[in-house]
Design a protein that fits this description.
The chain is an alpha+beta fold and 85 residues long. Helices cover 19% and strands 31% of the residues. Strand 3 and strand 4 form a beta hairpin.
Length: 85
Amino acid sequence: MRLDLWLKRVCLIQSRSMAKRGCHEEKILLAGEAVKESHSVREGELLTLIFPGRSLEIEVLKVPSGNVSKKEAPDFYRVLGEELV
């Protein structure tokens, strides 16, 4: 599954276009490196999401096969760290 779609489905980012913009602005990183929105997400990958005022480091636990409810979304990733900037 594409990174932008995964971020949207697991409710970490509101829309795919926001995820795409985050990748272009290097605010979404894979193992500390810039990543394209078309990257195919795999279990075990480490992502860093840089939001205004904070950054979030997460580990991908699962890739959903379809839509995910907000209640189920946290089952697909683990927060490894959060930092206020």
